[in-house]
Amino acid sequence: MTRKACLVGPAYPYRGGISHFTTALTAEFEKDHDVLVVNFSRLYPSFLFPGKTQFDESKSPVAVDTVRTIDSLNPFSFHRTAGTIARFEPDLVVFQWWQPFFGVAYYAILWFLKRFLKGRPVNIVFLCHNVLPHESSPIDRMLIKTGFKLARLFLVHSTEDEANLKQLKKNVKVLVHPLPVFDMFRHGAYTKSSAREALGVGGRVVLFFGYIRDYKGLGVLLEGFGRCAERIDATLMIVGEFYGGKEDYMAKIKSLGLDDRVMVVDNYVPNEEVEKYFAASDVLALPYLSATQSAIVQVAYSFDKPVIVTNVGGLPEVVEDGVTGIVVPPQDPGAIADALIRFFESTDSNEMAQNIRAHKERFSWSGCKKALLELADQAGSF
Fold first, then answer.
1. Separation between Cα atoms, residue 133 and residue 321, nearest integer Å
2. Which domain holds residue 159?
3. Which among 213, 214, 252, 247 is positioned nearest to 236, based on CA atoms?
4. Reported pTM
5. Of 42, 165, 200, 296, which is least packed with CB atoms within 10 Å of its CB?
């Protein structure tokens, strides 16, 4: 008998990595499950969203059929959502967690669902992309504890998140499994040469990609790249929407004399253009000041691109120093400069690309599904 799985979380028309994650995980579950995807009718209220739009404006959306029942500000929608899930009669419900704001909604949906189920066995798993936000507060912790109150099965993507979870909630079953490779952007539309021609770049190219927020360490990268540029002829592409502080970063670029060496693309990149930037680059740099994990690493791996990361959170758990990338201390421009020089002068990038290809099975979507099912089957019903 075919099992039924319900995935709860954002999907198209919302943009971003978690929406893409929902679509890819749905495709994997659909191979041997009936699947219901419960999406949001309203995700963030506008005053909480720092970007230009919450919606995916790509010409080639990464999409899946969903039922859009969750309005984050409407408690009546929580009851309606629980009823929708219960009528589907799933064997497994996976709630995607990434933001404390949704704690009350998730708690209410689970509370109503338990009553709709009337004792019918269903396994509930929280799949946590981040247990805590990057800048957390006591209110965030209260909302997290509320959201997690009725859950006891958790899948996280790093040992740091495992530790964070166990500090917030006792007597839980937790499985650590890495983020899968985000391979939905690789279409073969660009070669390295055609991508570089389209972007007007050449020589050695370093890519910083994704939303730009303070914790991602762009300022450290700029200082490190400035030191590297004294010795290496290279271009830094900064590609992603600024969530504040753009003027300070642009001033830093100018003060370091990097105007001609840095390309800035201040936009959320539509799906059909992601490949262009990764195809054109030699290496991805993610000098995060703090992190639990990063989907951007897994996008880079889909293009067999090596990654320079800092030794924070779960990043060194997915980037093997000297094998699939280079790991450096955080908040250290000199270490970033040394890593870039080392990469361009003495690293065999083709060998690293081969290593990444060999490591990809560890980051498969089938492995993520298997981990969720094993976790659910271990612990009994809701």
1. 27
2. 3-180+364-378
3. 252
4. 0.93
5. 200
